[in-house]
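Entry, Tuesday afternoon. Goal for today is a structural model of the target with flavin-adenine dinucleotide bound, before we commit to ordering more compound. Inputs were pasted exactly as handed over by J.K., no edits. I checked the ligand SMILES twice against the vendor sheet because last time a stereocentre got dropped in transcription.
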Amino acid sequence: MALRGDIYRLFESVVGPENISDDPAVLRSYMYQPFGAKEGVWADISPAAVIMPSSTEEVVAIAKICNRYGIVFKAMSTGWGMHNLPGVEGAVSLDLRRMNRILEIDEKNMYAVVEPHVICMQLQVEAMKKGLNCHIIGAGSNTSVLASATSVVGYGPDGLSMGFSGRNLLGVEWVLPTGDVLKLGSLGADSGWFCGDGPGPSLRGIMRGWEGAWGGLGVFTKGAVKLFHWNGPTELEMKRTPPNYVLKEPLRFFKVSLFSFSTIEKLAEAALKLGEAEIGYFISRLSPSFVGLQLASGANYVATWNTGMLQQMLKYAFLFVIFANSEREFEYQQKLLAQILEETDGQTSPISETKEMQEQTSTAVIKVDAVVRSCFRTTGGFNTSFGSMDTVDLAMNQIKAGTELKDKYINKGVIMDDGGDNSATLAFDQGHLAYTEMLIMYDHHDRDSAEGACQYLAESNQACLDKKLGPPIFQISQIGKGKHGAFGPACFNYDSWLRKIKGEFDPNNTSDPTAYASPE
Ligand SMILES: Cc1cc2nc3c(=O)[nH]c(=O)nc-3n(C[C@H](O)[C@H](O)[C@H](O)COP(=O)(O)OP(=O)(O)OC[C@H]3O[C@@H](n4cnc5c(N)ncnc54)[C@H](O)[C@@H]3O)c2cc1C
């Protein structure tokens, strides 16, 4: 649905003619999206125009025009999923790529103030120069720091030491759906960016709750995020060329280990004990298939997989990384780790001691740069299921349920045979919280495969309800209209609160409600 000429010109007067487009070729480029639950890679709905504001003032002006003329808008930062595209006809996309500045790094108080299109790698490079580091979500260092902190999920395996994006958020500048600007936390009391919960209004729960509003509650234009101590060099020197590039020099007091356990229960016990011991920089339960996908090229992966070696050695395994501040601490952490492995019959995998594994994994762990090749390389299409954050035990039950269900679809030949259990499990908060995502790879250009993947996702959602495994992370946002229908009643009717919030903050329903909720 085309945008009326006079409204287009109003937007144009805000951002300038070079920063708005309704050219079909340009719009089409925004519709390409391999991370979606559907056949093909093109979104069904095109934005009516794409607008690229460069400042808070421009975002405010755009939101006000949208409210006046009944135009829906949808913000996108780095655009890593179908959920950043409008879900209604006639909406405009706000591509925030021009808002890409790191505004401040406060070394003493350990936080950075960023705009929406600052990516994790950009922030990490600058933070390391000051002996600091930032949390990077599992999707990789190519993603927006602010989008994860304010609007969508925020898990990553370095969460063991650097938390969860939503927790790391401090002061925030928020353009509400109406175009009014709200400043949260200490920023709201003109006291700087240092705190998310006051002095000044907190509203953290309303702004993002657990998972984020997925662009349904306006635009976050600036935010401060916590930074963490970095004990490595101020600049990382690399050797070789991507994707095989690795750190030139190994990091001091840094060790990557891959362990395997005889049963899933032993794996869970070890994860809990490691959490309680409060050691480690990075933890991720890696399935045999995921380890293979991280290490090898596509062809090598198939060859290695067919030997059966990965499946045999790594059935219940996890990757654990120690990064200590001193030799003494390094020894202490290794001692505790050895003790926990002894108590849980954990075995160090021979792969983990190889130079290749140490080099490649150190780089991947610090930069979080291996996800794209692991997820999209084999079949082109990728999606995920389960993923509710809960206890370590529930995460293990998600693995069991997901593996059983996936086997059915693998046997039908519609999704990739990755051994069924292709799950990533992470632990946070000293082992008190954990989650599992069960990944699937499929061919979205093949109708049977795409339909099979969609059926699997629907069935996995049902399994979450039937087996009480918690709401799935991404399916809720991807199902679209009516998405809360099944999960609302099962989870204290949370959706009725979302609708109330939406009604209060967005009376004209201007900020695209598709991935969030419409007012009651
Ligand atoms: C292969 C793969 C792996 C992934 N792994 C993870 C993972 O491990 N952990 C994780 O947390 N997520 C993961 N994701 C999901 C998700 O894509 C990321 O959370 C995302 O990258 C967040 O940053 P983005 O800038 O790309 O968000 P976008 O795709 O641009 O936006 C995400 C959502 O937030 C909204 N939004 C973005 N910026 C703003 C803003 N400034 N104001 C208001 N709303 C905004 C958008 O409307 C959209 O609904 C993964 C995705 C893929 C494809």
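The mean pLDDT is 91.
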